[in-house]
Design goal:
With about 220 residues, the chain is mainly α. It has a single domain, classed as Hypothetical protein, domain 2 (Endonuclease III, domain 1, Orthogonal Bundle), CATH 1.10.340.30. It contains twelve helices and no strands. Helix 2 packs across helix 3 and helix 5 crosses helix 6. The longest helix has 17 residues. The chain starts with 6 loop residues before the first helix and ends in a 26-residue tail after the last helix.
Length: about 220
């Protein structure tokens, strides 16, 4: 099967978005552990809500592995309430914390090779491929490409994918077409998210889009 992406195509998209939006300095977080917490909290919610939940954890002085392992689940759920699905996310967050503890803390995970690290993360309750790859890329600077709804929207509108491909297939396609470079993957994904929120939204602003000449999607005539 022919590859979905050509390196040159992806480079054009990356360089265009970078020239328009500049470096994104993503993911906001003071420590790898905070990034891991944010990766769970951001599931199915806006980042502004995640920030409020993290601010609550900081104000309560419990944003550390030891403190979260000691806190009652009900109290944690109330602290992260702004992130939505707070009971579900409290359970998921505590499962992640137990996993981190079993691995010897964040420091212990730093030395685990990427493939077994990813496989282990996917065994943690509530950690799917996108969340696992957020953690690997943004908290541990591993060269894995994050595929999310914004990625599917943009590249299906550009005509490079159908948008229905399996997560793992798309991830491999991106990683094969690009150099395995965590800094590049970090910046590219952050730019995709910025562009998809600002211009390539569900109702796109095609007339303002810097990728208009590359795009097969015209003024919402179809809406992947």
């Amino acid at each position: 099967m022919a590859p979905l992406f050509q390196r040159a195509q992806l480079r054009v998209v990356f360089k265009t978005l970078l020239s328009v939006y500049g470096p994104q300095h993503w993911w906001p977080g003071d420590t790898p552990f905070e990034v891991m917490v944010g990766a769970v909290l951001t599931q199915n919610t806006a980042w502004s809500n995640v920030e409020r939940a993290i601010d609550n954890l900081k104000a309560a002085e419990v944003l550390s592995l030891d403190c979260l392992l000691a806190i009652p689940e009900e109290k944690l759920a109330q602290l992260i309430r702004p992130a939505g699905y707070f009971n579900v996310k409290a359970r998921r967050l505590l499962s992640l914390c137990r996993f981190i503890h079993q691995q010897g803390g964040v420091g212990g995970l730093m030395v685990v090779p990427t493939d077994p690290f990813r496989s282990a993360l996917l065994q943690v309750h509530g950690i799917g491929p996108e969340t696992a790859d957020d953690i690997l890329l943004y908290a541990f600077e591993r060269p894995v490409f994050v595929v999310d709804a914004y990625t599917r929207r943009l590249f299906s509108r550009l005509g490079m994918i159908s948008g229905a491909e399996a997560y793992e297939d798309l991830r491999r396609e991106f990683e094969t077409a690009l150099d395995l470079d965590s800094s590049l993957f970090n910046e590219f994904h952050a730019l995709i998210v910025r562009h998809a929120k600002q211009l390539c939204a569900r109702k796109p602003r095609c007339g303002e889009c810097p990728l208009m000449m590359e795009c097969m999607f015209v003024d919402g005539s179809s809406n992947p």
